[in-house]
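Allow me, if you will, to draw on your knowledge of protein folds for a short while. I have a record of one protein: its chain in single-letter code and its fold written as discrete structure tokens. Kindly check, if you would, that the fold set down in the tokens agrees with what the sequence suggests. Thank you for your consideration; the sequence and its tokens are set out here:
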Amino acid sequence: MFSIFLVYTIKLLKKTGEKQKIHKLKVKIYFSILGGILIGLGFGATSDPFLFMFGLSFRIVGYVFQMIGIVVLAIFFTSLPSLSEQDWKNNIDKLFLMRASGICIYYKFFKDQDNKRDEQKISGAINTIKMILKEISHDEGEMVIEKEGKVLITCQGKYITGVIIADQNSNSLNFLLKRL
């Protein structure tokens, strides 16, 4: 049963690796599979039939394999993102894509569907704030501004600047904004 799961996971990772850049996640998953295999080998080596065939020293090797496997799995599980990252869709309030001049080329209000504010004014205000902060910090990359329970995340590309207004800051939102 475990071998079927292992083959399925490897095939799934090969398919997603061609479409997406998830190299770090693939390495972590392969590392966790190695940890599971080490635990299985260690459990097998500590069983009574192996104890009778190979002696007590082989059981100690099995215990070492189990401990290494547990440490590898612990490293894998601590490197996973928190569960609050899974709720990133519900955290997005507004999305703006604008040119460097501040002209809004795309906007979407996710939570406030009936509120029809002028998106050009909002994007102009965001662009003004971004320019002021750029003058102060001399940084042209991404910026995160937190104010009164809202987070403004900006990411500037060569031609387009993406802005997400959300309820809380998360790595998922930063990753999505960089992909735009």
Notes: The first strand starts at residue 92 and ends at 99. Residues 96 and 107 are 4 Å apart (CA to CA). The beta strands are 92-99, 104-109, 142-147, 150-156, 160-166. The chain has two domains: 2-80, 86-179.
